[in-house]
Request: fold
Amino acid sequence: MPRIAVTAHISIDADEIEERFVRASGPGGQNVNKVSSAVELRFDARHSPSLPDAVSIRVQRLAGSRLTSDGVIVIQAQEYRDQPRNREAALERLLELIREATIVPKKRKPTKATYSSKVRRLDGKAKRSGVKAGRGKPRLD
Reply:
């Protein structure tokens, strides 16, 4: 069973990817009604033994609407008129999604507002308050 290299450390088994071929919409001439050139690629990200848990979780989050409730990523490719190029495009999209998931996001370090930024904010509020106070009816003391 061949393995598909995703990154230097991660490779997935070709048996984990399921492909279905369906008829594509769009250009194709007389061929469009008789050739199944569109590809629907399915990859079970939730139960894949090839992906580390952290990558699996991130890839499921990144997949968005392409993820089914069972944790299967479904990628459809029909931009080309021939099946081999659509297969290649769908596989490349899946690999790119997994590569993106291997990047660990940096933790945000909360910072405090500087003294001068607090002063600027309060000065702005005081100035605005004065402008609004001046809009009222004049008081006769």
Notes: Residues 83-102 form the longest helix (20 residues).
